[in-house]
Write a structure and sequence with these properties.
Length: about 270
């Protein structure tokens, strides 16, 4: 087979050495953090630099229990996520776990907790290019179960709780998540009241990539899942609170540990595609 090379992620068959699992942070700087965590948990050597870094796509190649695992950042939002997922899938990657950060809209969920997504409300635009809007954005059951098992085993040690449920995935951080402190201080009528509506429909949280990822994985016959760490709460009495560095550190660290553990569970249980 001729060597396949992917333009945006700057990866090819040779570089990825047969990796079939990927952890997908949004932030390119989080790729290194995840590689370092994998290094410390499994005693794996951490490369001096990324395998590739082009635009928002920063990739490390790591070993977990004898299997090659990629860590590739997606950038923020559906369009850039779709490019990462499509190009990685073309290279043969079959299991995708988003490891991100999120804001919660339920009062019962705290900063530093983690959310394992069962399915996403498709408020994005990119996923409609892969499957019609009636198509559900659902996590693959094996990946979701691995994430829940990982969360259950680590939550006590990490000092957080985990929550399993539906996520809303938007295209915009300000208007789409009904942030009244946005530049215009005006939320278009279509979006006003959406936080309360999703809250009443038991949606747990909001972020910006899971609906694209999960729709694509379903439509392409791949396994997708999503774990996010809570860095912001839109609880009824805390709307408008800023995201602090400490909140980011906590949410990020917890989601990363659970994402890594889920990959280990999937690898060691040899859960088939
Ligand atoms: N990411 C989001 O999309 N929203 C938040 O509130 C936090 C992280």
């Amino acid at each position: 087979m001729p060597r396949r090379a992917m333009y945006h992620v700057a990866l090819d068959d040779e570089k990825i050495q047969g990796a079939r699992f990927v952890l997908l942070p949004g932030d390119p700087f989080r790729s290194r953090l995840i590689a370092e965590r994998i290094g410390s948990v499994y005693g794996a050597p951490v490369p001096d630099g990324p395998l590739a870094h082009n635009r928002e796509y920063c990739t490390y190649l790591m070993d977990i229990r004898g299997r090659k695992v990629l860590v590739t950042s997606t950038g923020i939002g559906g369009p850039s996520t779709s490019i990462a997922v499509d190009e990685l899938a073309q290279l043969g990657v079959h299991t995708f776990i988003r490891v991100g950060t999120t804001g919660v809209i339920q009062d019962s969920i705290a900063i530093g907790d983690v959310v394992v997504t069962t399915g996403s409300v498709r408020l994005d635009g990119a996923s409609a290019d892969y499957a019609p809007v009636e198509y559900p954005a659902v996590a693959h059951p094996e990946v979701m179960l691995a994430l829940v098992r990982a969360a259950k085993s680590l939550a006590g040690t990490l000092g957080c709780r985990y929550h399993v449920g539906v996520t809303a995935s938007t295209d915009t951080f300000y208007q789409g998540q009904e942030r009244v402190d946005a530049c215009s201080r005006y939320i278009p009528r279509r979006l006003r009241g959406m936080t309360e509506e999703w809250r009443r429909l038991h949606v747990l949280n909001v972020e910006m990539e899971s609906s694209t990822l999960l729709t694509m994985c379903g439509a392409l016959g791949l396994r997708g899942g999503c774990v996010t760490g809570v860095i912001n709460t839109r609880a009824t009495d805390r709307v408008g609170e800023p995201i602090t560095a400490e909140h980011l550190r906590l949410g990020e660290a917890h989601a990363v540990m659970i994402g890594i553990k889920a990959i280990e569970i999937l690898i060691t249980n040899a859960m088939p595609l």
